[in-house]
Structure formats: C-alpha cells, structure tokens
Give the backbone structure.
Amino acid sequence: MPANRSTVLRRGVAALAALPLLTLAACGYGSEAKSDGAAKIADGAEKTDGLDSVKIGYFGNLTHGTALVGVQKGFFQKELGATKVRPAIFNAGPSEIEALNSGSIDIGWIGPSPSINGYTKSNGKSLKIIGGSASGGVKLVVNPKKITSLKDVEGKRIATPQLGNTQDVAFLNWAAEQGWDVDAQSGKGDVTVVRSDNKVTPDAFKAGSVDGAWVPEPTASKLIAEGGKVLLDESTLWPDKKFVITNIIVRQAFLKEHPKAVEAVLRASVEANKWINAHPDEAKAAANKQLEADSGKALPAGVLDPAWKSIQFTDDPLAATLGTEAAHAVKAGLLEKPNLKGIYDLTILNKVLKSQGATPVDAAGLGTS
C-alpha cells in the first residue's frame, strides 16, 4: 500500500539525517584551513573572552567568500586579538552541522537548508543564525546541444549537489512549478535528479552522464567553461533578485558563554563584506588565494570572474527568503512543516551595524524576540 503523506515526510527527514558526513579530512570534522601568514596575531593583543581559539567552518565555495576573505586578509584574527582563529573547510552541510553539534567548530558559514534542518531536528536547541553573508550565485547550466529552452529540461538528467541541500530543494520546487512530478527521495520522475558532489559534477557534465546542473558558484562557471550555457539564474525567481545562499550560524552554548567572541567574528564579517564590496577585484583575488591555500588549486580567470560577479555579499540574512525555502522543502516532501520561530538571533549583528551607522536587519518574525 502507498505510504501516507506523514510517513513520506518522516522518511524525508530520516533520509536527510542519514546523509553521509562528507568531510575533506580522513578523521574528525572538516580539514584545517591554511593561510600565508596574513593573519598574524598583533603584538600586545589580548584574548577575547579568555579563549585560546575560535573554530570557524566554511565551504570551499565562492558563495562563502566572506569567510574566505576574512581568513585570507586577517579580518577574523584582527578582531579576535590573541585568540587564535582555527578555520576548517567542509564540502557538505550535514557534516558542518555535525561538527557544530559536537563542538568541533563554534561558528560556521553555511546554506539555509542545513541551517533549517539542524535547527528543527534539535527542536531549536542546536544553533542560531546570527548574520547574513551572501545572496545569489546559483544557476541552472545545461548542455545546449540537448536543452535549448526551459521545457526541454523535462526528461533530462539534472545534477544537484546533495539530497535535501539548498540547491536540491530549489530545483525540486522549480520542477514542481513546471508541472513535473519527481520523487524527491529517488530523484526519478518527469525529470531525473542526480545527486552529485560539486567536485565531480563538471566531469559528469563533460562525459554526458548529466544534461545539466542546478549548482552554486564556482561549479556553475566550471560547467560553462566545459561548454554549458546558463538556462536560468535562480535570482530571477526571487523578489528583488535576492535570496539567502549563505548565512552565519553559531552553536547556542557558545553564543551564551562567549558573546564577546561572537561579536568579534561578526565585526570581522561586516568589515570583510564592506571591503569586498569596496574592492571587488582585490577581494576576488583574495578569495581565490584562500581557495588555493585550502585546496592546492586556484580557479582560472575564466571561471573566477563570471562566478564572482554573480554573488552579492550582504550582512542581511534575508530572513524572509529562508522561510520561503523551508516551505519549498515541505512542499517537496523533504521536511515536515517546521517551527522556525527563534532560529535567528540578530541582536549582536544589529549592535555591530548600529555602531557603524548602518541600518539594522530584520528577522522576518523568526527572531528570538
């Protein structure tokens, strides 16, 4: 007998919980980021909140450019004084959430879907979103020999990074709006969804095993370099062409015990975003330099330049769009209707913004008060 809807939703949540922890290191959570010495501790600096270190997680994606630049240019280290910045790189949201829950990291840059899943699975006890970082930078790139219009996507094989991740949910929602039926768990239906790590998707695209991909930067631009064409920029589907792609989360116990350290990281994030927006070419180079330090390989200009242009760096977490993305996950059958009240605590961020004469940001009714 077919399962009822509540059973399907529970299976969806269980499947997300069971996703493998895809870390870059053989042991532990994430791999340690490297720097070229730009983040030296200043003479006479004092520890923040008495901490020896603050552990910060992020992905090796340009959509995490705030963190990349913050590490490379020393913004985090400057604000934390003698408290050592210890960055770690991840390639999947579930592994970063697991690292946060275990205390392996304290603060992280991450997408909205893992944030929602982490918060709801812990009954609101795991994390808080404390700031924004980036909007945009997600595209549907296709093989122009096989797909020339949106309707041509039907019947094709489209890659997304991972079951239930932010881009997977976005593509499933878009496909449903086209009137196509797709089983979220198996990816089978009027369109076949192929869950493929961003690292291998360009090779799969080049080999013809997928016909396109709904992916973040720089993967989208890597596909374009392989002959792909942008069929759809996700930003065109959102009001004002803005939607959260990366936000900042913190372990709730760390937020409670070390608010000064959290404030220091948020000051650094705001300063990094300000510098990125004022010096786009230098910022692009700095982000690429950190990617090279972390992975051993820099992005070529043909990938880096268009990818960087498609991302907006912002302190605003764009909270209203997170609520919409949660609704999309529910619609796809990957999440039971969540209670997101309290997922945001923007108190410290707004304190930092106010001190700089900037406009406070809003939690769209999903804040702590």
Summary: Residues 259-278 form the longest helix (20 residues).
